[in-house]
Amino acid sequence: MEYEIVRPGYLTTRQTAAALGVTPGGVRILVHRQQLTRSGGSPRRPLYKATDVAALVAKRAKQSAA
What we know:
The protein has 66 residues and is mainly α. Helices cover 50% and strands 6% of the residues. The protein contains three helices and two strands.
Protein backbone atom coordinates (compact mmCIF):
# COMPACT_ATOMS: atom_id res chain seq x y z
CA MET A 1 0.00 0.00 0.00
CA GLU A 2 1.35 3.40 -0.99
CA TYR A 3 1.26 6.41 1.26
CA GLU A 4 -1.94 8.40 0.97
CA ILE A 5 -0.14 11.67 1.66
CA VAL A 6 3.54 12.24 0.94
CA ARG A 7 5.25 15.41 2.10
CA PRO A 8 6.05 17.82 -0.73
CA GLY A 9 9.56 17.34 -2.02
CA TYR A 10 9.68 13.62 -1.16
CA LEU A 11 9.07 10.49 -3.22
CA THR A 12 8.03 6.96 -2.31
CA THR A 13 10.06 3.94 -3.37
CA ARG A 14 7.74 3.30 -6.33
CA GLN A 15 7.90 6.90 -7.47
CA THR A 16 11.69 6.88 -7.12
CA ALA A 17 11.94 3.63 -9.08
CA ALA A 18 9.78 5.06 -11.87
CA ALA A 19 11.89 8.22 -12.06
CA LEU A 20 15.12 6.19 -12.26
CA GLY A 21 13.76 3.53 -14.61
CA VAL A 22 14.49 0.69 -12.18
CA THR A 23 12.47 -1.64 -9.98
CA PRO A 24 11.85 -1.02 -6.27
CA GLY A 25 14.56 -3.64 -5.66
CA GLY A 26 16.90 -1.52 -7.76
CA VAL A 27 16.21 1.43 -5.47
CA ARG A 28 17.17 -0.71 -2.47
CA ILE A 29 20.42 -1.65 -4.23
CA LEU A 30 21.19 2.03 -4.84
CA VAL A 31 20.66 2.71 -1.12
CA HIS A 32 22.89 -0.24 -0.21
CA ARG A 33 25.61 1.11 -2.56
CA GLN A 34 25.19 4.55 -0.94
CA GLN A 35 24.24 6.21 -4.22
CA LEU A 36 20.88 7.23 -2.73
CA THR A 37 19.92 8.07 0.86
CA ARG A 38 16.65 7.51 2.65
CA SER A 39 15.23 10.76 3.97
CA GLY A 40 12.34 9.82 6.17
CA GLY A 41 9.34 7.56 6.25
CA SER A 42 9.63 4.25 8.07
CA PRO A 43 11.96 1.28 7.65
CA ARG A 44 9.31 -0.51 5.60
CA ARG A 45 8.17 2.55 3.65
CA PRO A 46 11.11 4.90 3.15
CA LEU A 47 10.92 8.28 1.49
CA TYR A 48 13.56 9.88 -0.69
CA LYS A 49 14.19 13.59 -1.33
CA ALA A 50 13.07 14.57 -4.82
CA THR A 51 16.22 16.68 -5.23
CA ASP A 52 18.44 13.65 -4.47
CA VAL A 53 16.52 11.55 -6.99
CA ALA A 54 16.72 14.29 -9.64
CA ALA A 55 20.49 14.58 -9.09
CA LEU A 56 20.91 10.82 -9.49
CA VAL A 57 18.79 10.84 -12.67
CA ALA A 58 21.00 13.60 -14.09
CA LYS A 59 24.19 11.77 -13.08
CA ARG A 60 22.99 8.53 -14.70
CA ALA A 61 21.94 10.38 -17.87
CA LYS A 62 25.36 12.05 -18.07
CA GLN A 63 27.13 8.70 -17.64
CA SER A 64 25.02 7.00 -20.33
CA ALA A 65 25.68 9.88 -22.76
CA ALA A 66 29.45 9.55 -22.37
